[in-house]
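#structure-requests
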Amino acid sequence: MLPLAIERGIDLIRIDPARNMYRYYMLRYEQDLFGQWVLVRQWGRVGRSQQVWKSAADGRNEAVLEGLRHALSKLRAGYRLRCDKKFGGRPHKGTESWPGRPP
Protein backbone atom coordinates (compact mmCIF):
# COMPACT_ATOMS: atom_id res chain seq x y z
CA MET A 1 0.00 0.00 0.00
CA LEU A 2 1.24 3.47 -0.88
CA PRO A 3 1.41 6.45 1.48
CA LEU A 4 -1.76 8.53 1.32
CA ALA A 5 -0.01 11.48 -0.34
CA ILE A 6 1.19 9.30 -3.23
CA GLU A 7 -2.04 7.29 -3.32
CA ARG A 8 -4.03 10.41 -4.25
CA GLY A 9 -1.40 12.04 -6.42
CA ILE A 10 1.59 14.33 -6.07
CA ASP A 11 1.56 18.13 -5.88
CA LEU A 12 4.76 20.03 -6.56
CA ILE A 13 5.42 23.75 -6.45
CA ARG A 14 8.27 26.08 -7.31
CA ILE A 15 8.19 29.61 -5.95
CA ASP A 16 10.95 32.16 -6.37
CA PRO A 17 9.66 35.74 -5.92
CA ALA A 18 13.03 37.19 -6.97
CA ARG A 19 12.58 35.57 -10.40
CA ASN A 20 8.79 36.10 -10.46
CA MET A 21 8.39 32.32 -10.59
CA TYR A 22 5.17 30.78 -9.22
CA ARG A 23 4.82 27.36 -10.84
CA TYR A 24 2.96 24.19 -9.94
CA TYR A 25 2.95 20.63 -11.21
CA MET A 26 0.26 18.12 -10.25
CA LEU A 27 0.18 14.38 -10.93
CA ARG A 28 -3.00 12.30 -10.62
CA TYR A 29 -3.84 8.70 -11.42
CA GLU A 30 -7.31 7.90 -12.67
CA GLN A 31 -9.27 5.56 -14.88
CA ASP A 32 -10.87 6.71 -18.10
CA LEU A 33 -14.36 5.67 -19.25
CA PHE A 34 -13.04 2.37 -20.58
CA GLY A 35 -11.24 1.36 -17.38
CA GLN A 36 -7.76 2.21 -18.71
CA TRP A 37 -5.46 3.77 -16.09
CA VAL A 38 -3.98 7.12 -17.07
CA LEU A 39 -1.47 9.47 -15.55
CA VAL A 40 -2.81 13.02 -15.63
CA ARG A 41 -0.19 15.79 -15.48
CA GLN A 42 -1.23 19.42 -14.95
CA TRP A 43 1.17 22.31 -14.81
CA GLY A 44 1.31 26.06 -15.12
CA ARG A 45 1.60 29.29 -13.21
CA VAL A 46 -0.22 29.45 -9.88
CA GLY A 47 -3.59 31.13 -10.40
CA ARG A 48 -3.45 31.04 -14.19
CA SER A 49 -4.59 28.66 -16.91
CA GLN A 50 -2.98 25.26 -17.03
CA GLN A 51 -1.62 22.69 -19.40
CA VAL A 52 -2.93 19.12 -19.15
CA TRP A 53 -1.40 15.95 -20.53
CA LYS A 54 -2.81 12.45 -20.14
CA SER A 55 -0.77 9.33 -20.83
CA ALA A 56 -2.13 5.79 -20.80
CA ALA A 57 -0.60 3.11 -18.56
CA ASP A 58 -0.90 -0.67 -18.43
CA GLY A 59 -2.23 -0.54 -14.86
CA ARG A 60 -2.44 1.58 -11.74
CA ASN A 61 1.02 0.60 -10.53
CA GLU A 62 2.51 1.55 -13.89
CA ALA A 63 0.77 4.96 -13.72
CA VAL A 64 2.09 5.55 -10.19
CA LEU A 65 5.65 4.60 -11.20
CA GLU A 66 5.52 6.91 -14.21
CA GLY A 67 4.22 9.69 -11.94
CA LEU A 68 7.06 9.13 -9.50
CA ARG A 69 9.58 9.36 -12.36
CA HIS A 70 8.12 12.72 -13.39
CA ALA A 71 8.07 13.91 -9.77
CA LEU A 72 11.75 13.02 -9.25
CA SER A 73 12.65 14.89 -12.42
CA LYS A 74 10.81 17.98 -11.20
CA LEU A 75 12.35 17.73 -7.73
CA ARG A 76 15.79 17.75 -9.36
CA ALA A 77 14.75 20.89 -11.28
CA GLY A 78 13.99 22.81 -8.06
CA TYR A 79 10.34 21.97 -7.39
CA ARG A 80 9.32 21.03 -3.84
CA LEU A 81 6.51 18.88 -2.52
CA ARG A 82 3.49 20.96 -1.64
CA CYS A 83 2.59 20.23 1.96
CA ASP A 84 -1.07 20.32 2.83
CA LYS A 85 -2.57 21.15 6.22
CA LYS A 86 -5.00 18.23 6.03
CA PHE A 87 -2.04 15.84 5.91
CA GLY A 88 -0.34 17.47 8.89
CA GLY A 89 2.07 19.65 6.93
CA ARG A 90 2.42 23.39 6.61
CA PRO A 91 1.81 25.05 3.24
CA HIS A 92 4.75 26.71 1.54
CA LYS A 93 5.01 30.44 2.03
CA GLY A 94 2.84 32.22 -0.52
CA THR A 95 0.60 29.22 -1.25
CA GLU A 96 -1.90 29.52 1.60
CA SER A 97 -4.69 30.32 -0.87
CA TRP A 98 -3.71 27.54 -3.29
CA PRO A 99 -4.37 27.65 -6.20
CA GLY A 100 -4.84 31.38 -5.76
CA ARG A 101 -2.85 34.11 -7.39
CA PRO A 102 0.75 34.83 -6.46
CA PRO A 103 1.26 37.33 -3.63
